[in-house]
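REQUEST FORM: STRUCTURE PREDICTION
Request ID: SP-0412
Submitted by: Lab K.M.
Chain count: 1
Length (residues): 383
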Amino acid sequence: MSGKIVWKGALDIFKHYPLFGSGVETFAYSYYQFRPAEHNLTSEWDYLYNKAHNEFLNYLATTGIVGFGTYSIIIITFITIILRKHRTNLLLIALLASYISYLVQNFFSFSVVMIALFFYLFPAMAFVTTDSVRPFSVSRFPFLSLIYRRNIYTKAVQVIILITIFFILFSPYKFSLRRLWLADTHFALGSRASEAGNPGRAYNELTDAVSLNKGEPYYKSELGYAAAASALALQSDDDASISAELKDEAIQITGEVLQKSPNNTSFWRTAIRTYFELYGIDPSFINKTIEAVDKTITLAPTDAKLYYNKAVILGEADQNGKAIRALEKAIELKPNYRDAYFALALFQFDTKDTAKAVGNMNKVLQLVPNDPEALEKLNEWGK
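STATUS: Completed
RESULT:
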């Protein structure tokens, strides 16, 4: 069911960006803006969808008519050649059948790296089998012919190739694969430390990751959050000077990331977390946090969880009326949202609207029978 909903969103992206699409590998960000509200009713409602779960619609949404047309031409050309010229060749018919099976699989799913190779391997195997591929001849290029015939030149070219490969793999410069691998390793360690509630370790690892790969905004976004979390932890330990430095770093890094990627929903979500951490140090950041939530909602208008998070933050600011409206919007988008009903009941009870509070707490029990938290609250309220 969720697959068809995602397909609908992919078509809406295409309608909005018909010529070139939203951009290669941007589905994870563009989908949120066109995400159908009924997605909230699926079991995967809060998952990050980075593909359309249909390779053809994915090309259509992210590369538009131009990209999808090119992709289609490759498919049609290969199938046409086999059917017109080699329909009696059993090996080629088998390859064609495998190719079509691959395309059918792609219609209901998407390609990962290993599977995507078959899109090119099947046609390549067919062309080699039919001797359609001609060996490259250096005789047509005098310069290459000279190098090929002189052994010393051939050896020199081989040495240059080996040095280049070694340089790309192991050089200390930013484009080396070793450097990128180390950056990813530090990032993974930092992410684990952050999830484990160790902001200091997370900050150190993510700092190393950013220093190794300065051009990766995802690293910087998470580093900004780690800096904010570390600042809050040190503030609690009465180490105000270092905490202030980390706070300024978190603000600077987060601002840079959002300036360079102003429409990236994931970065705005991280910014919400970052500013909320800073709110623990400086209460004025509650307004910055709410602004970040509102911006994220404009990029993902049907995401019920954003309205729920906004309500929680508004509650911290003692803006219960606005929090109630945010929760009502969350429930409108996701009528089976247990957490939203529970929070709404708490806010309504705090605002002396006891009847509605009890009604929504009973709604929690309808969604989750014998919910222990709901039963506890109703007992506290004498209901």
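NOTES: The longest helix spans residues 55-85.
Reviewed by: T.R.
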